[in-house]
């Protein structure tokens, strides 16, 4: 099976745009976001109360109906994020900012602290909402990577993702 960059699932006025490092090899083979069987992304979303049920990777396009979109800072699939080059990050940072400015999601959820570091140029931030967004008027929210390589306990990850809920609903004001 050949490996290719995967399509963004993005549209105007999303509730949440999830941003990963880059597609896994499995995602590049299947064309679906977070498709590696060891990735806990869809399980975390469901347990955090962000989805009414646990979706499968091949249903990633269906999450647009919930107001959730997907993109990555780098399009090239790799085995690990360590394989991403500085040039790919530089290019990806510019393209990601353009996507956020164009589509203006309510919340941009960075699925991995390193993703946000590469995007913002900032270091040492905590989990959750960031105080000075790169794109004004957008809530930038940092979550742990859902990769199976991450050693954080699932319940800790779910709690951090659950924190997005108050910001992702237009009828609620962000605090």
Question: Which short descriptors sum up this protein?
Answer:
175 residues, alpha/beta, Uracil-DNA Glycosylase, subunit E, 5-stranded mixed sheet, 30% helix, 13% strand, hydrolase
Structural features, described:
By secondary structure, the chain is an alpha/beta fold. The protein has one domain: 3-Layer(aba) Sandwich (Uracil-DNA Glycosylase, subunit E). The chain contains 6 helices and 5 strands; from the N terminus they run βααβαβαββαα. The protein has helices at 25-30, 41-47, 86-103, 113-120, 154-162, 165-168, and strands at residues 16-20, 68-72, 107-111, 128-129, 139-143. It is globular, with a radius of gyration of 15 Å. The termini are far apart.
User: What structural category arises from helix and sheet content?
Assistant: alpha/beta
Q: In the CATH hierarchy, what is the class?
A: Alpha Beta
Count the E strands: 5
Oligomer: single chain
| Unreliable parts | none
Strands ordered across the widest β-sheet: 2-1-3-5-4
Gap from first CA to last CA: 47 Å
Overall average residue pLDDT? 93
Proportion of residues in extended strands: 5-15%
The CATH superfamily is Uracil-DNA glycosylase-like domain
Largest sheet: 5 strands, mixed
Question: What does this entry show, briefly?
Answer:
Residues 9-157 form the Uracil-DNA glycosylase-like domain. The protein has helices at residues 25-30, 41-47, 86-103, 113-120, 154-162, 165-168; strands at residues 16-20, 68-72, 107-111, 128-129, 139-143. The protein is α/β, with parallel strands linked by helices and 175 residues long.
């Amino acid at each position: 099976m050949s490996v290719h960059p995967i399509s963004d699932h993005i549209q105007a006025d999303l509730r949440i745009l999830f941003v990963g490092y880059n597609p896994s090899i499995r995602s590049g083979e299947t064309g679906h976001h977070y498709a590696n069987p060891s990735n806990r992304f869809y399980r975390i979303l469901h347990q955090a109360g962000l989805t009414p049920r646990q979706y499968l990777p091949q249903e990633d396009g269906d999450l647009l109906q919930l107001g959730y979109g997907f993109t990555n800072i780098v399009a090239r699939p790799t085995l690990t994020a360590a394989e991403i080059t500085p040039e790919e990050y530089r290019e990806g940072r510019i393209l990601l900012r353009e996507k956020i400015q164009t589509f203006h999601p309510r919340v941009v959820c960075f699925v991995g602290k390193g993703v946000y570091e590469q995007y913002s140029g900032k270091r040492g931030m905590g989990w959750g909402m960031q105080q000075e967004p790169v794109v004004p008027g957008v809530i930038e929210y940092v979550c742990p990577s859902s990769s199976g390589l991450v050693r954080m306990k699932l319940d800790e990850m779910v709690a951090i993702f659950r924190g997005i809920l108050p910001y992702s609903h237009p009828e609620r004001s962000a605090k």
